[in-house]
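We treat protein structure as text, and this decision shapes the records that our systems exchange. Because each token names a local backbone shape, the row as a whole describes the fold. For reference, a complete record is included directly beneath this paragraph.
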Amino acid sequence: MTKQLPAGVVFGEEYQKLISECKAGSYALPAVNVVGTDSINAVMEAAAKNGSDVIVQLSNGGASFYAGKGLDATESMVLGAVSAAQHVHLLAKHYGICVVLHTDHANRKLIPWIDALIDRGEDYKKTFGVPLFSSHMVDLSEEPLDENLSESARLLKRVVGLDMSIEIELGITGGEEDGVGSDVDTIDNSKLYTQPEDVLQAYDQLNSIGHFSIAASFGNVHGVYKPGNVVLRPKILDASQKLVSATHGLASDKPLDLVFHGGSGSSAESIKEAISYGVFKMNIDTDTQFAFSRGVGKFVAENPMAFLHQIHPETDQPLKKFYDPRKWLRSGEETMIERLDQAFSELGSVGKSVAK
């Protein structure tokens, strides 16, 4: 594969080139939700280790936590997202990979968060010549389709001049993430499956404005649920691609840039099939959260005295080298990286970074 993009954060045409490489090479990138420097660094380290590019994304809650729980929640979700983005801008190039910076689900009540981040992005571009984020997600899937698309169009018009994209959601991804969504058992099952006609309407309304991607629901859910609760139907994605291509007489049989939400717990077969229909991005959060926690928990279980005493009560051994946060946080990073090794492998992106 030709190394064609500079290492670091990608946006605009570079972001679209990266997507094209993914679709042409039949692979996808993991989009990993992060909450602090530890998880961000683990994601970039894992990507560099696997020779893959990657997508770093923040939910409103993750951004708020990044800024600190001592700040007002409304203020912190903006400041945390800005701070995290600046962290990635500074370090991504040194990891030698391409990174897409993205914000996750923003429903109706969180649209002011997105508008505030676009304002910050405008200021950032004036100063540095590049946008702060690669893209933002607008999740108005619980609203009527016309409202979803009209508001998505408004925001796309705002970001297109900044060399940015948006991601929209059609149909509802089951489960709940940082206050967005509903428990899978309470959703009308039909809403878990996007209608191709709705995808066509989105394409018709947004394509002339600028670049966008679509999270089209095909039974996927956030979190890990008991087997049998949901049934994935990736062929909905194929039908959507074919309808748009045929309606507009397009040369490409995969004109849509598609996103797979709720990737945690999905089978390798479902992932591979979704990628074959034009998915370039798969969200993963629940599994990486658990992986990080598993590493920390294992370290604590192996060194219990260090989390109760500064000096071992029986041996008088100083325990600083065990309760030092750098020790147990690193254990969490390492197990998160192990889980991401699996994700890069299942998504087929190992060794396919396009970073120069």
